[in-house]
Amino acid sequence: MNLDLLGILGANLLSPAVLFFVLGCVATLVRSDLKFPEPLYTALTIYLLTAIGFKGGAAIADAGIGRVWLPAAAALLLGTLIPLWAYPILRWAGRLRPVDAAAIAAHYGSVSAVTYIAATNFLRQSGIAFEEYCAAFLAVMESPAIVVGVLLGRILASHETGTADLRSALRQSLHDALAGRSVLLLVGAMLIGYLSGKRGMEATSAFFVAPFQGILALFLLEMGMVAARRFGDLRQAGSFLLVFATAFPVANGFIGAAIGWGIGLSVGGTTLFAVLAASASYIAAPAAMRLALPEANPTLYLTSSLAVTFPFNLTLGLPLYALMARWWHGTP
Amino acid sequence: MNLDLLGILGANLLSPAVLFFVLGCVATLVRSDLKFPEPLYTALTIYLLTAIGFKGGAAIADAGIGRVWLPAAAALLLGTLIPLWAYPILRWAGRLRPVDAAAIAAHYGSVSAVTYIAATNFLRQSGIAFEEYCAAFLAVMESPAIVVGVLLGRILASHETGTADLRSALRQSLHDALAGRSVLLLVGAMLIGYLSGKRGMEATSAFFVAPFQGILALFLLEMGMVAARRFGDLRQAGSFLLVFATAFPVANGFIGAAIGWGIGLSVGGTTLFAVLAASASYIAAPAAMRLALPEANPTLYLTSSLAVTFPFNLTLGLPLYALMARWWHGTP
Amino acid sequence: MNLDLLGILGANLLSPAVLFFVLGCVATLVRSDLKFPEPLYTALTIYLLTAIGFKGGAAIADAGIGRVWLPAAAALLLGTLIPLWAYPILRWAGRLRPVDAAAIAAHYGSVSAVTYIAATNFLRQSGIAFEEYCAAFLAVMESPAIVVGVLLGRILASHETGTADLRSALRQSLHDALAGRSVLLLVGAMLIGYLSGKRGMEATSAFFVAPFQGILALFLLEMGMVAARRFGDLRQAGSFLLVFATAFPVANGFIGAAIGWGIGLSVGGTTLFAVLAASASYIAAPAAMRLALPEANPTLYLTSSLAVTFPFNLTLGLPLYALMARWWHGTP
Amino acid sequence: MNTHPMTKVTIVCEAFARESVLRLVESVGAHGYTLFAVEGSGARGVRPADIQEFSNIQVEVILQPPAAEQLLHRLQSELFAKYAMVAYASEIQVLRPSKF
Amino acid sequence: MNTHPMTKVTIVCEAFARESVLRLVESVGAHGYTLFAVEGSGARGVRPADIQEFSNIQVEVILQPPAAEQLLHRLQSELFAKYAMVAYASEIQVLRPSKF
Amino acid sequence: MNTHPMTKVTIVCEAFARESVLRLVESVGAHGYTLFAVEGSGARGVRPADIQEFSNIQVEVILQPPAAEQLLHRLQSELFAKYAMVAYASEIQVLRPSKF
Ligand SMILES: Nc1ncnc2c1ncn2[C@@H]1O[C@H](COP(=O)(O)O)[C@@H](O)[C@H]1O
Ligand SMILES: Nc1ncnc2c1ncn2[C@@H]1O[C@H](COP(=O)(O)O)[C@@H](O)[C@H]1O
Ligand SMILES: Nc1ncnc2c1ncn2[C@@H]1O[C@H](COP(=O)(O)O)[C@@H](O)[C@H]1O
Ligand code: NA
Ligand code: NA
Ligand code: NA
Questions:
Q1: What is the domain extent for residue B101?
Q2: pLDDT for res C1
Q3: What separation in angstroms does the CA of B250 have from each of A16, B75, B116, B121, B319?
């Protein structure tokens, strides 16, 4: 089994996606003048979210909603609970301020779409089948933890906040969670994939499916640059956060794998469930925290989610969660 | 036949292209922060115009110019005449100011490339064959109506304008009509498709043909957002314009279908001819009006062409024009 | 053979790539409002460099480094020598200022990635096989001539420069040469193609290979606009430079073909070697000259490389270098 | 020149502050604003402009001097602590004072 | 400071007005201009920057004060009625007055 | 108004000058800068913004008046001859003078 770990680890580390991520890190570290213009970043994001949503929706139509709603509810519940477990660890083991603990907790309960997408890529390259409709779990897991984190931060941390303020902050968070571009694109494309069915898929697969892996690789080049820019803040984050940002995802991944297995997903689907549990948001959650908990220190939550957890999951995490999935399925 | 209408209507409404358009409308209506950066919009436009032109040129090379010039002349003539018919309706039935009537007339005589492209998409999905060289009609129909509209507006509306002014305004409109980016890309790509022939097509079809439908879907997401932003101006446009913006295209579509059938196009080609007659410009014509008839009220012509006619044609119009084409061909 | 020249010349001039370049020139000359937004230009550049590098790296993995290093060393040497040969011609035959002669020499020793890419396109369309790993020669030839040019310009031209200044200018040039975006992307993608091998190629070929030729055509549309903007400066550049900008590439192409044949490349590979020798940089070299030799006149080096040599190579040069390659191989 | 003094308030801030800033601009009675994306560097580090969410915007608002004063003070009291932000006022001359 | 007073005229307008504005700028004798795309909101509604044709531009022109006055007045008389537009002048200090 | 005078130096230059300009800005002690891409036209011709390497940038720096003077003079002596460039100063009012 050890050998097997090395095998899939090597395959992952030598995949174009991960190598382009590393190239992006290198570009930042050698101070290259390579830059992705903002519209290119946005275009790639729109493409990736739309494509993954569309394929997910088509898969739900194929599988029937009946098979999807239970695991989706489990995903939603898990997303809600993770921050409640993260908070005390961060607050008391990490001795972080309440508002910082709440903000970081929100990040780890929420998910990283890019990590999920890289995971589907990894599974495809490794020849492990998975339920394409798992994209639905991605969609339902982005927001709950953010709302919980905002609530935690507001209630436990801020003394100046009245109920009216709390309600308006919650309303804002909820609106952003549902109408925010990532959820809107993901859920919207999912509905479209569901409604337009096989025919829609055939018509657009040369765009939404065929070039997907190459586009993801290019996108990870940019994400490597973005993540590496935060490497300088690692010291500021402190050693507790560094440990937390690798150990906590692994623990969540293990639990996620257990649940995925328990609700009857395949090994591939179980891996994706574990990946969702393990991944930390670094776009939606920071945006929400800046608005709803602006007193929280962005260096702490961005550095841990973007500069530690994301690269960790991308390189070592993915093979590890696949192994966990096999272990729970009893096929190591 | 009614059932058949419902069938192709349903197929159109559930196509990814139309559904993404609807998603774009929803994004604007729920005030999502989703935004297409301007360079992405421009890139998609360049791609769509180039691709449709290139395929059209290759098709002309295939069919021989002999078969194309007559319908192209008919298209050009139709584009010139529509504004002359639209003007009195708008001026006297609609009681619009002369300059506004002229500006709106120009929009409905000109064409919407995106509607045309969506129509080819619709035909392909419905399994209806069409002459790919119809893109040539799109190219010749964009400008004449704009020139006619400017002439109408200048002559009938402005009293302060001398002949020198009129001539310079016309020269500007003609230059913009021929060197403007949409005509330049469309005609240029058409020439390239014509000259580079089969070999050129083979070399580039993985770019110009395969991903086309998916890219169109993504583009319509943006167009949905753009159109929906104008929904708020519907009241300002007034009920006459709302009726005009749906009834006038239907009437033109019916005439266009008759002509398309008369000049010997297939059912698919006839549909496209009807679509060109029915569609209203919302990019080239507004740009020309801002420059040549700046006194005209943009809210009127933009709201009717962009917020009413465009969505109407995209959703209900396309199936309707296909039915009209079948009806003229006696194959309902 | 003459007839043959006409044959491949015609095939090249009627390829989508060249025709789109011509369309771009036309767009600028008729003052069209067509514009490529900067992020689109950057995105296309990133794509083209990454794709060509990736394919090159996969080809090196296939061929074995043993077969690549010797021609790569020859390419590097040639890139270093060309400026030393160009300088005296420019300085004494052309009577240019030392700093201008050095700057232009750097441009002609360095290479144009777009010309190389267009050459692979041309070979593919002409059915001439080539070693895909020639991209490695492209990578090693960009920088040496720039460093040599800066040295020439600093030592021979500037009197005010002390050794410390020279050293810092060199350090800057070297850093920019190695960490500059084009070399970084090209070499990085090459490494990734090498490391991720066949599997990586399969996963991403629908993105990096299939649409390549179409994307190149679109990119050349933009390059046509950019080059044509410089046509107005042709008079300023003077007739000597116009002759130099066509004759010097041809001479270098002939030498390059000889070397390519001498080191055992195929006819296609020999053509590419000749193209690299003949092509002149118009992005990396100007950027380096602005920083390291700001006293040199940009009109001179940009006009000759961008407005003369680049279009010449693209249209007439490519077929010519292919003929030279055949001639050296004794298969005219 | 038949022009009238007016104040332009310029706000450079992280993109996250967009909604909060525009709400404030509206609430002090400004009739419009102009906005564009910028890169920047300041006390809170370098902010490159490649990810919309992590980048900066510059907002320029023309208003009557008293409203400008109010805007600056509310920016200071309500937003300076929360966001990376710089704000300053400059004097300009306009032709149609009633527009602002 | 060895600097010289000059006037900067800033014009925020819809992109459609680009050619008309630049023609005017040239005709009052300006030696240059700087231009960039912006979003904005004003009397004629919100103008987001996603479609080039529907978006705004900001043009900044440095000129001698009398030429600036002329530019502002011609903007007012020739273009204010036709296009969504705001224009204003501000005083700046330059080093090479002969350049403008 | 409880505001403090400060100087804003604006530099419009070709993108190639970016590193040189930012180095200068830092060396005169500025605590930050704001930067964005622009198109332009001037003595060295029209500079459209489609190729990053051939386009213009605008850099805006807020500093204490003496540092602004120094920045302008060093721009003039060290960079004006080498790059297409325009630089000017304007007076602004800030709230937190210690920030600059
Ligand atoms: N001295 C300055 N001059 C010009 N812009 C500045 C200056 N300081 C800060 N900025 C801008 O304001 C943003 C936020 O500043 P800060 O809160 O200091 O990080 C920076 O990213 C810059 O865009
Ligand atoms: N008070 C203001 N402050 C700053 N910019 C403004 C203001 N009013 C209008 N603008 C800008 O000028 C453009 C045209 O203005 P308007 O003609 O009022 O719609 C708007 O889209 C804004 O970009
Ligand atoms: N009079 C001016 N007003 C505004 N911007 C200018 C002016 N002159 C030059 N510029 C800007 O400065 C850049 C460089 O100027 P130059 O060195 O004169 O070519 C131009 O590309 C413009 O963006
Ligand atoms: Na998670
Ligand atoms: Na029409
Ligand atoms: Na060369």
A1: 38-329
A2: 41
A3: 52, 17, 15, 20, 11
Q: Is B198 exposed, middle or buried (0-12, 13-18, 19+ CB in 10 A)?
A: exposed
**pLDDT of residue A332 exceeding 80:** no
- pLDDT of E53 > 80? The answer is no
This complex has an ipTM of 0.93
Residue E88's closest chain D neighbor by CA? Answer: D94
The answer to whether A and E touch (≥3 CB pairs < 8 Å) is no
Ligand positioned closest to the Cα atom of F58: 3
Model confidence pLDDT, tens digit, residues B197-214? 888 999 999 999 999 999
**Structural domains in chain A (count):** 1
Question: What does the pLDDT read at residue A68?
Answer: 93
Q: Do E56 and D34 touch (CB under 8 A)?
A: yes
Cα torsion at B69, B74, B77, B81 (round to 10°)? -170
Give me the helix-helix angle, A144-152 and A65-88, nearest 10°: 20
Q: Does B125 map to a domain?
A: yes
The CATH number of D4-99, from 3.10.620.30, 3.90.650.10, 3.30.70.120, 3.40.50.300, is 3.30.70.120
Predicted TM-score (pTM) of this structure: 0.94
Report yes or no on C272 lying in a domain. Answer: yes
Q: With CB atoms and an 8 Å threshold, state whether B125 touches A203.
A: yes
* C23 found inside a domain: no
Q: Kindly give the parts of chain C with pLDDT less than 50.
A: 1-3
pLDDT at residue number C331: 78
pLDDT digits (tens, 9 = 90+) for C154-175: 888 665 556 667 777 778 777 8
Number of inter-chain CB pairs under 8 A, D vs E:
61
Please state, in angstroms and rounded to a whole number, the distance separating the CA atoms of residues A187 and B40. 22
> Cα separation of A110 and A276, whole Å?
8
Residue C109, both tokens = 């020793």
The structure tokens listed for A291 are 């608005």
Question: Which one, of C157, C166, C147, lies nearest residue C83 by Cα?
Answer: C147
Contacts of C213 (CB under 8 A, 6+ apart): B203, B204, B206, B207, C16, C17, C121, C124
